[in-house]
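quick q for whoever's on today - can somebody do inverse folding on this one?? i tried earlier but teh output was garbage lol. tokens:
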């Protein structure tokens, strides 16, 4: 799946692109069927909110779950990113963010590349996020908020916030967010399960807490050009991966094929 020239121009100018209806409900069902099992696991990769119960993020599920392993090599996710970074990619980070109904906490204002540069010594912002909505994202359940065009600002000064949520993050101060929002405004892309959101690793973003009764599960692949791999291994391997081999895309029907295999095994 390749981006059109209009989408490439939009990405360059705005720092993000929304792609509706990329995965079918059958494919989403294969993935969502695994999420409760993953979220029930008590393992280091499954990070909970401050309450110690609601899952904030499950890292690296592509290394311990077959459906998410396939998603991590899915051509509909890899192709547009390889097109944008102009070459083969490896998985820098993989996470399923829960943002649970009533209990999902905020993600403060930040840039992802700010963390990858400071913590992991990734040389350049030649990496990006591609997010797949596994559940509907609405104005109520804690949508991602972007400051369009903020990716043009480069890496912005940030402070290491270890207190606000259960997860430490390099966050921007209020004055900086105010100035950037005066220039670029703000958007909160919403959509059905199966939609994709592609955003530049320097795009400033955040999400509010989810006080609605609806979960908001999104899976994020952070893919990096293989030449641009991280140089420092300070964080756990399952947060900042160290396998820099190019990912070989699987066949386009790999998730539906898994559903078929599971149905046959159950007979
Ligand atoms: C992130 O910025 O990494 C996650 C934000 C979210 O899932 O709301
Ligand atoms: Mn982020």
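ok took a stab at it. sequence:
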């Amino acid at each position: 799946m390749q981006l059109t020239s209009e989408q490439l121009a939009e990405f360059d100018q705005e720092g993000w692109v929304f792609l509706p209806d990329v995965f079918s409900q059958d494919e989403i069902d294969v993935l969502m069927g695994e999420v409760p099992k993953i979220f029930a696991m008590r393992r280091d990769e499954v990070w909970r909110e401050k309450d110690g119960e609601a899952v904030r993020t499950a890292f690296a599920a592509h290394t311990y779950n077959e459906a998410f392993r396939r998603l991590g090599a899915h051509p509909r996710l890899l192709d547009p990113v390889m097109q944008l970074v102009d070459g083969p990619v490896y998985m820098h980070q993989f996470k399923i963010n829960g943002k649970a109904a009533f209990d999902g906490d905020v993600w403060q204002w930040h840039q992802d590349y700010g963390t990858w540069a400071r913590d992991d010594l990734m040389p350049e912002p030649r990496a990006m996020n591609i997010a797949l909505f596994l559940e509907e994202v609405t104005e109520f359940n804690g949508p991602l908020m972007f400051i369009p065009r903020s990716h043009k600002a480069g890496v912005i000064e940030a402070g290491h916030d270890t207190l606000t949520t259960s997860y430490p993050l390099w966050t921007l101060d209020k004055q900086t967010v105010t100035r950037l929002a005066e220039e670029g405004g703000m958007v909160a892309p919403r959509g059905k399960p199966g939609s994709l959101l592609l955003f530049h690793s320097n795009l400033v973003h955040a999400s509010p807490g989810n006080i609605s009764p609806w979960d908001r599960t999104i899976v994020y692949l952070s893919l990096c050009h293989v030449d641009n791999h991280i140089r420092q291994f300070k964080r756990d391997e399952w947060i900042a991966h160290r396998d820099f081999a190019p990912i070989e895309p699987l066949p386009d029907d790999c998730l539906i094929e898994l559903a078929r295999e599971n149905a046959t095994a159950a007979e």
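fwiw The chain is about 25% helix and 20% strand. also Residues 97, 99, 107, 144, 205, 207, 218 surround succinic acid (ligand 1) (CB under 6 Å). so keep that in mind when u check it
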